[in-house]
Specification:
With about 300 residues, this protein is of the alpha/beta class. It is about 40% helix and about 20% strand. It binds alpha-D-ribofuranose (RIB) and calcium ion (CA). Calcium ion binds near residues 12, 15 and 125.
Length: about 300
């Protein structure tokens, strides 16, 4: 049976690759996209989610708009310097014809999980506000979700927006703290592994040879993202953040995971830090399955094979 997936997303250039990868993987049934702020505003990310699905010929997949702001803190800046003002590399893709659902992202998540007990995997590739709100609206979903798979956090490596915080967690640390302590099966793909999966310019150019809808869309949005990497790191090679979550769903054997309690700092200079308690000295009752190692070549080969198909 196909694995039912909801992707909570802030598209977002790497989000785009993740969504295209999911759509080109027959093992997965993408039952909906829920939009969140992060790379851009939630208004823009909702439009982008509609755009991506329409370009992929999948207007049958619903989009639900999520929260415009974090649970408690003042909103941080959006990552438009990384993803462009439009969130899709300033590619100015066609305005979508479709509209978002008239229920919120959190309500959609609750509705789908209650309707499909034990079958829905929540893939979060943006800030965790919608996921936290869903758990708050209906705590019963915590025992009914198949798995929560998160691109976010940094357990044993430095952060990418502060010395200790990864962007998705930093944008709403209170939401992340709620999600990490809820007690549902949670797998964290943090910078520990996503920065080890490096897509070179040559790799991307090989993928573009497929000249299909997905690879042409990625080719259209990717240059802005590569230019950010060139300015930051002096190379147009990119990290594989969001697509890694889909690769994990397709072949979890490519990742080494360890069950480790994770504390999310919500206050002060280190807000957004995901602190692994390797010896459970704080006696936390819940844990995350942290991805600590990855067969990066296996992930790259899997992504290329699927996108070029
Ligand atoms: O830190 C990387 C994450 O932040 C990715 O999800 C990227 O899309 C941004 O949302
Ligand atoms: Ca993202």
């Amino acid at each position: 049976m196909r694995q039912k997936v909801i992707i909570d997303t802030d598209p977002g250039i790497d989000d785009t690759m993740a969504i295209m990868l999911a759509l080109k993987s027959p093992e997965l049934e993408l039952v909906g996209l829920t939009a969140i702020y992060g790379n851009v505003s939630c208004d823009q990310s909702s439009i982008n989610a509609l755009k991506l699905l329409e370009i992929a010929g999948r207007r049958d997949i619903p989009v639900a708009k999520g929260s415009n702001v974090p649970l408690f803190i003042e909103p941080h800046r959006y990552a438009t310097h990384v993803h462009g003002e439009d969130g899709l590399g300033n590619s100015n893709l066609p305005v979508p014809k479709g509209k978002v659902l008239d229920i919120s992202a959190a309500e959609f998540i609750v509705k789908m999980v209650l309707k499909n007990p034990g079958e829905i995997t929540l893939v979060s590739i943006g800030p965790l506000t919608n996921i936290a709100l869903a758990a708050r609206i209906e705590p019963g979903i915590i025992k009914l979700v198949k798995e929560v798979v998160i691109m976010g956090g940094a357990a044993t490596v430095r952060g990418n927006v502060t010395p200790v915080a990864e962007a998705n967690i930093w944008q709403d640390p209170h939401a992340a703290s709620i999600v990490f302590s809820a007690g549902w099966p949670l797998t964290m793909l943090g910078l520990d592994v996503t920065t080890k999966i490096i897509q070179t310019e040559e790799y991307l150019n090989e993928i573009y040879l497929a000249n299909n809808t997905a690879t042409n869309l990625i080719k259209a949005v990717m240059p802005f993202y590569q230019n950010f990497y060139f300015k930051r790191f002096g190379s147009k090679n990119i990290h594989t953040h969001d697509p890694s979550t889909i690769a994990y769903l397709l072949n979890s054997k490519l990742f080494t995971v360890k069950p480790i309690p994770v504390f999310v700092e919500t206050e002060g200079r280190c807000a957004g830090q995901t602190v692994p308690d390797f010896c459970n000295q704080w006696g936390t009752q819940t844990h995350a399955n942290i991805c600590v190692e990855v067969n990066f070549q296996g992930v790259l080969d899997l992504i290329k094979k699927r996108l070029m198909n």
